[in-house]
Each structure stands twice: as structure tokens, then as C-alpha cells.
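Journal club side-thread
Mid-discussion, someone asked how the predicted structure for our own chain would compare to the paper's figures. Pasting it here so we can look after the session.
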Amino acid sequence: MDLLGFLSLEAPFLIPAARRNRSREALLKALDDAFALEKDEASKVLYPGASAGDAAGWSKSALRELVEGWFLREELKASITPDEKRELLRVMILSRALDGFMVRMFHEKKIAWEGRPSPQKGFRGFGQEACAALALRLRRGSEQGDIACPLIRGLPVTLMFTDDPAAVALAQVGKKGSLFDGRDLHTGNLAKGVLPPTAPLAIGTQTLVGMAYAAKLRREDRVFLSIMGEGGSSLGEWHEAVNLAAVQRLGMIFVIENNHWALGTHWREQTAAPRFALKAAGYGMPGITIFGNDPDEIAAASAWAAGRARAGRGPTMIELVTYRRAGHAHHDDPRFLGAGAIKGYEDPEEHAAWEAADPVALYEQRLLGAGIVDAAALDRFRSDAAARVAEVSAAIDAAPWPTRADIDDRVFAVRTEPAPDSRPAKTKPMAYDEAIRQAMVEAMERDPRVFVLGEDVGGRYGGAFGVTRGLVKQFGPGRCLNTPIAESAILGCAVGAAIAGMRPIAEMQFADFVACGFNALVNNAAKAHWRFGRAVPMVVRLPYGGATGSDKLLSGGPFHSQCPEAWFLRVPGLKIVAPSTAADAKGLLTAALRDGNPVLFLEAKGLYGMNHPDRLQDVPLGDYEVPIGKGIVRRAGRDVTLLTYGPMVTVALAAAEMLARDGIDLEIIDLRTLVPFDEALILESVAKTHRVIILHEDAKRGGVGAELAAILAEKAIFDLEAPILRVTAPDMPSPYSPPLESAYLPKAGDVVAAARSLMER
């Protein structure tokens, strides 16, 4: 893109100056003159904290960086060597050949298991091969280098990093031999610098933000390349991640591939802006729009953005205006292009214009005209690509289909962190929240990988409930990170940092708000180890519920008192713990940080010291764990087993005292861990008492009690002498008003009534 073309996009008011003098110095002088204000004009207050001079300076600074960036990109473009250009063309031709091969496989339907054809959705780069240049000047091929996350159109970038076309095709057909061995259709290999993407598109961007933050904490000189289609850039999760990266000035490049089509939605239906790069200004980063079928322009833009990132100047947004030359995936080709009586949804004029702008043909012509390649070299590139594709075809034919062994025993990572040698002898009386803070302090002192992130956890606030108070003073704002109000970005960042080897603790202000980050937990954290064998050692602290085990009420209402455990109970890959005492809170949090898996830490805010200043408990000081997956008998009994957790343990103990006066002996099991349950302890107790009550603060339908009842029906049916009873909140949201909240919460009297009814059966 020449200078006038660039200025027509970014700064049209400088076009007259450029016509007179196209030098860098002259343009920057014209820019300064355009923003010059008289002294009295500049001092005019717009609102407290901002003057007219400040405002003009913001805009001038942003435009100055764009203008200087154009000249730098021109220098970078001129520095691309003939060998680099030949490498780009070679990969573009290979990508085109591999794409065509996978299309043919899809239509031939020869790859089949027991007569069932492989679905072969498609991982395509047809018409967008120039995006390979994004990787040209990055440090490729190692997990310790730069990392990219290409999406479904990113086949050329993947090949630049991995040079492994067979892995792409094997993942597509679902055979063994790729990183996924049939578990997923996506491709990638983190060991070679390619983060495997996911179908919920923004997950990859969120993960890269977390990896980039880990690199920032470790002071590593690395760049993280996120590639997103223009449709995916509409996702709120993507916006949250981009904003967090900008605030933290992370070493990232955000690429928007404007393919023109997101499945069947045209780009003009995605945004009211004339181009997507304009949105970069809203995040406080430079954004540029370039022709996405020109490898040299792309290589220069990527190298410029990488240079900014390495210099600590934060992320850059690059919009590649290109075109999807086929359907969204192989099966969509007839609907997009048209077939037989089916009229395609593609616009014929767009098709013709972009077919004439084919990136492979344009680059071949450019390199031929410059004498960088000749006809023989082009023939060699094509024959080499055909040979590589033939090798891929042979590898597919030879590869076995996966078996049950390729999916079993993969959901959870095996813990590798050693446990403490012994229980510390020294203790200190603490409230529940103080014990949690103590666990975080000790973990952060022991392990530099541990850090805390969340809304208001640092700064002057110290967490919505003060649980992180003092951490930022002791460990600094990097390890006690105040994030934007963006739960999805918080959790996505935590996942990426965990994958990168850190041990993040993500705090939700209220457990209710974790719903905003559901995707990051359920479709990313929980699946990563099963998909591609990567542990995700992270903890999510969830202050939940409203019960305190006393007459004191919290009055949180329907958005600040929910119990979220049932949302996640059924998600393979997540562990859930729910301490009821201060000592267990410390011990379970310490164990969770060493577990190697994502652990949801249900933190009963009703047990915080602000609600029970008199309820202090002796908590071991030093390295102390409570093992995940192990419950405990809080009160031994012979007549009825009561299964509960969290603040309901206090309710159960109060009910037990009342029942003892009637001669009914209640055995109380504090589950402590909800995933995995301590089934052995539960079954042992039920075999003794033959009667069961399940108590939890959450609503009844589909709750933890339902799963426990199903387990008992399967494994202890002959030990039971009466129906299983559940004492829970009603099936409704938590109300706000004190009398309504009191009526809503399970009480000791409800447990007493249930136990009496069981003994009468």
C-alpha cells in the first residue's frame, strides 16, 4: 500500500502535505501543525482531569505512531530477502495443494470406519494463503518461542510453524497420528508453537492472553499471535480479552481476517464500521488495515507489530482484508458456490473481484517479475507440494483408527507436585476468610508461579470481601492483578497462564458472576488435558450462597447468593471443593494449587469473619493440605447418615443436637470435595445407618443431592431401609428481603423433621 493509500485510510487530512513532500519528517511536521493549539486554547478544561491540549495530544500521539509505522513497514518490506520470499511462496503452494487434497477426500468419502465415512469438516486456507506471512519474522517452531493460534482459515500459518501437513489431515479424518488421536478435529501443536484452537472461537484469544501474561511475569521476550475471523471479532469474549491485553500492554498481535463471510453472514452484518481496524483505537492500541492477499505487506505488518510487542509497547491490531474462496467448510461449498439447482449465497461480483486477486497467482507473478523465481522453480515447488500431499495420503491410509484407550483416563491430569511431609504443629486461631488469605500468602511465598487475578483484588480494595487484602503490598501488582470487570477474560487469562506453567488463582467477586466466564471453564479449562494432554493447574475462588448457620442473613438476592456447584458438577475435567471450616479452607486451597487440574473453590461467604467474628478455629501455620476427594465424619452416629458440605455443616450439627434429645443419632459427613466424591466414606456410613438425608443450600432439582441419590441407588440400594430424603432450598432464585431469605434457606428444623420422618418408616 503506497503512502497516499495509507493516508486515505488513516489520516486523509495529511494528503495535501504528502503531495508536497512525502518524507517522514515533512509528514510528521504537518501532523504537529494540524494539532497545534494556542496556549489559551490548550488550557481549556473539558472536564476535571482533561484539557483541550490533553485531548489533542491523545489523538496526535495515536496518529503519529500510525504514520511512523507506515515508514517502518516500508523498511521492513524492503528487508524481506529472496530466500524468505521463496519460503513464503513454497508454503502458500503447499497449503493450496493440501487444501485441495482434503476437499477431494471429503467428496470421495473413501476414508471410513466400518462403512461410516469420516466427517472431515475442513481446516482450510483456500484463497487466504498469504496469511502465511504473518509467521515469517516470528520465532517459530518451539514452545519457548513465539506462539500462534490460527483458526480454521489459518492452515498456511500452521504449516509455517509446524511444516507438518500430515498432522492436519490426520486430525481432520479422525485417525491416530496427530496430537489429538481422533478426540478433536482441530489441529495444532504447542510444542511447535501452535496453540490448538477451539470451536468457541474466542477461547484461543483468551488463552493466548493468559500465556502472554505469564510471559510478562517471567520477563520473557515472546510474541503471541491471535488470528480471528471478522465474525469471531463480534464475540464479547474476544473484546474482553483484547481489552485486558491492551490494559496490561501484553506482547500480542491481534489479527482480524476479514474473510467477508462468517458462515452465511456478510461482514457488513457484523459491524457498522467501514473497517474492523478502527476498533483498535477504542482499546488504546494502533490498528491498521492492509490487503490480506499480499504476503509482503502482511510480513511487514506482522514484523512491525512484533517489534512493538518486544519493546514493551503492547499489542497491535491488524485487519487483513481478504476473501473466503469456498464455503465455511467442505460441506458448505454447494450452498456458498452453488451446485445444480442450488443458488449459492456468494455475491457474484465479489467472487469475480477476489478470484482475480488470487494470492498465489499474484505472488508467483511478482516473484517471477523480480527474478526471484523462474518457471523451473515454480514447477519444483508444485511438484514438491504434490509429493508432500502424496506422503500425507499414504500416512492416512496407513494410520490406524483410535480405540477406547485413546479417550479413557485422560480427563484429569495426574498430580506431580509433592505433598507436605507432615502436618505443621503450630496453629493460630483464624476466621474462615483469614485462613484462605493465609493459604494464598504462604503459596505465593513458596511458589513464584502462583498469582492472583480478579476484579478489585489489588489496588486499595483487597477484594470485594477483603480476602486478598494486603497481597498487592506484599507481592506487587503483577502477582495480585487488578483486572477489568470482565469475568470471561479473567478466567480465560487464568487458563492460558496455567497452560503456560503458572498457578493462577482467579477470584470471582460473587460466584453468580462465573456464569459470564462459563465458556472459558467448560469448553477450555475442563477439556484441554483430554484434548491435547496439557495440564491446567488453576483455582477459581467462588464466594457463594447466603447461609451462615445462624440467624444472621446476607440478603444477597438472586444475583449475589447463588450456589453454582450443580452448573459444573457434570463437566468432566473440573474438580470442585467446598470447605466448611477455616482449617479445611486453608488445606483444600493449598492442595488445589498443586493438583494440576482446574479446581473450583466454593468459598462460603456466609462463613467469613465479618459474619462470624466469634467463630475462630485453630488453623495450622505452614505447609498444610487437606486431600482433594476425601470427606470427613464431623459427628459419628448410628441412625441416619447426613451428607452435606460448606455452611450447611453448621446447620447439620445444630440439627444433630436437637435430634439427640429425641434419641435419634445423626452421623454427619462433610463431603468437602464434590468432584470427586468420597464414595467409600459415603457407602461405609450408609451401610451402618441404612438411612440418608442429603442437605445443601442449592435448589433441589438437578443439584448435588440428585447425583448423590443416584450413586446410592446404584451402589447401596440393599443397604437402604427408607427413601433418600433431600433437604434443600426450594426451586427458585434466592430472594433479597430478610423474611423471604429466611424462608428460603434450609434450617436445622427442616433437617430434624426429615430425620424424624425417616425413623418412622
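Post-session note: The chain has a mean pLDDT of 95.
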